[in-house]
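BUG-284 | component: ligand-complex export | severity: low

The export step for S-adenosylmethionine jobs runs without errors, but we want the raw record kept on the ticket for reference. Input record follows.
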Amino acid sequence: MSITRYKIAHPDSIKPSKGEAMAKKVVIRNAELWLGDCLELMASIPDGSVDLVVTSPPYDNLRTYHGTLDWGDHVWKPVIQELFRVIKQGGVVVWVVGDATVKGSETGTSFRQSLYFMECGFNLHDTMIYEKYQACFGSNNCYLQAFEYMFVFSKGKPRAMNFMRDRENVRGGVAEGTVKHGTKPDGSRGERVQKTADDMGKRKNIWKYAVGGGNTGHPAVFPEALANDHILSWSNEGDTVLDPFMGSGTTGKMAVLNKRAFIGIEKDASYFEIARNRIEGQTT
Ligand SMILES: C[S@@+](CC[C@H](N)C(=O)[O-])C[C@H]1O[C@@H](n2cnc3c(N)ncnc32)[C@H](O)[C@@H]1O
């Protein structure tokens, strides 16, 4: 299927219009924080230079972000195209998202975005769930809203897959006969071997956290542990992690704590300062 290619202006050619934040860059050791529009600023990131993106875009128009929000498929489609350009072969994008409900129907934007990632060439590697300890209330006509999507997209097979093994295995320590090579083409079963099950098994793909935020001063913060666990799972030390919708800098804080290089972009100047303070606090 052919997709409409968006023309992205190079930052050198961008003049902020009246009242818009002037692009600004702050470097804190191996973290670069850019104030401005990610669609414009990502154009200066070289092709195939980012190992991992952990981000949460605006959820429809649920938040106005001090009136700076300009959101719709005219923005997220070219952003997704840019993500495909900047991500390395084997790189991963974690897209944490939920939908607004408009006139009694969920918008389904998260699904449309997910399908568009695939149209642009990404694999939908895993549809994961961020389950919240605290239920958010939402409509009286629905059950309590308690999760968001964490779509994991990859450009080819993920290069880093460092799976968390923190699930207690109910059969841990039990010696079991397992079939080594499965069923052969002629229908006969493979050789049986004795193996003791590990005490801890691979984590399931539903991750449960207390909601993020605390007193950061940003209205839509995701949990530090969520960012941490994805960074450890899909990247290695020294890799470059990008968050084009940096908000209060949660991904950046956890990236520097885990010895990854970081690029963060945020459009709103006051959130940019929150992120800068949080990330500076981890590196000085
Ligand atoms: C859901 S919040 C991200 C929160 C972040 N994950 C955290 O933990 O703090 C989305 C952020 O994207 C920013 N944003 C929206 N459109 C943008 C754009 N075009 N370029 C850069 N940032 C943008 C908003 O100002 C908001 O801070």
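Assignee comment: Attached the raw record above. Residues 269-283 form the longest helix (15 residues).
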